[in-house]
Design brief:
This protein has 283 residues and is of the alpha/beta class. It has one domain: L-arginine/glycine Amidinotransferase, Chain A (5-stranded Propeller). Helix content is 23%, strand content 18%. A three-stranded mixed β-sheet has the order 2-1-15, with helices on one face. The protein has a three-stranded mixed β-sheet with strand order 3-4-5, with helices on both faces. Strands 6-7-8 form a three-stranded mixed β-sheet, with helices on both faces. The radius of gyration is 17 Å and the shape is globular. The termini are far apart. The relative contact order is 0.19. The protein binds arginine (ARG). The site of arginine (ARG) has 16 residues, from loops. It comes from Microbacterium halimionae. This is N-dimethylarginine dimethylaminohydrolase. One of its GO terms (molecular function) is hydrolase activity. Keywords: Hydrolase.
Length: 283
């Protein structure tokens, strides 16, 4: 193997929501089973370890107030999609989460973001990932394909549509992890990903193979513990401790896996990335 590249951590700004009202009272993905008990205090404690890890590594973490009756609000990745100070709001496919859309848009407006209310059904950074200068956009379960056109118009960037086919991986951020800094940041001109090939249809797999020949391909076992539902600052990659193979693959490539156990939040069908919305301010 050729020499391992030097990875550089880049400061990130994240939005999180303390899961004070977390429970599983309905089922909108295959992970959620309302008859299984949930432990809100445990969810809060696990969430706090993620918050603390981000802060300890120098990242800014902002908080949005949790709202009683909106147990999925902890998954802030579904609150919007933000680039250069512009926040595209969400329009949930599922009724159970409709009440979150306006509070997130209100938060973005209050903190000075230009808010664009959505026309099309979309679930924010759960389905949209910025890789370099390109937006990878998922559809198949939650966000409508029509939202991809809306995205391209709002952000004036290339949008690549990908179709998810396995209901376990119903949001794009459960099947792809973005590993590297955004294009041009700190002179870095690469942007790589890790993904789970079986989560996509054949056409989408072909696109990913062509665009990301150096991508890390993760195993089904690692995908199934939400190993790909991770955040990265370009060096530190925050992942589930259960994703053993992915952890080794990251180390081989010179990344530093930071292991955070969010097992309680997995009962709602979410992991590290789901609990993290990137706030990309004006550059
Ligand atoms: N229970 C939530 C839902 O089904 C989980 C959301 C996970 N978020 C994510 N970005 N993948 O909507």
């Amino acid at each position: 193997m050729s020499s391992t590249p030097t990875r550089i951590a880049h400061k990130r700004s994240y939005l999180m929501c303390r899961p004070e009202h977390f429970t599983v009272s309905y089922s909108i993905n295959p992970w959620m089973e309302p008859s299984n008990p949930t432990d809100t205090a445990k969810a809060v404690a696990q969430w706090q370890t993620l918050y603390d890890a981000y802060v300890a590594l120098g990242h800014d973490v902002h908080l949005i107030d949790p709202i009683d009756g909106l147990p999925d609000m902890v998954y802030t990745a579904n609150g919007g999609f933000i680039i250069n100070g512009t926040a595209y709001g969400v329009k949930f496919r599922v009724d159970e989460r409709q009440g979150e859309a306006q509070p997130f848009m209100d938060w973005f407006a209050q903190y000075g973001y230009d808010v664009v209310p959505p026309v099309e059904v979309n679930e924010g950074e759960g389905d949209f990932l910025l890789v370099g200068d390109t937006i990878l956009a998922g559809t198949g379960f939650r966000s409508d394909g029509t939202s991809h056109g809306e995205l391209a118009t709002i952000f004036d960037r290339e949008v690549v549509s990908l179709t998810l086919t396995d209901p376990r991986f119903y949001h794009l951020d459960t099947a792809i992890a973005v590993l590297d800094p955004i294009q041009g940041e700190g002179g870095v001109d690469h942007a790589n990903i890790a993904y789970l090939p079986l989560a996509f249809d054949a056409a989408s797999r072909a696109i990913l193979e062509e665009r990301y020949p150096d991508a890390i391909l993760v195993s089904e076992a690692d995908g199934d513990v939400f190993g790909l539902n991770s955040a990265s600052d370009g060096y530190n990659v925050f992942i589930s401790p259960r994703a053993k193979g992915f952890e080794a693959q990251l180390r081989e490539r010179g990344y530093n896996p930071v292991l955070i156990d969010l097992s309680e939040l997995l009962l709602g069908g979410g992991g590290i990335k789901c609990c993290t919305l990137e706030l990309r301010g004006r550059s």
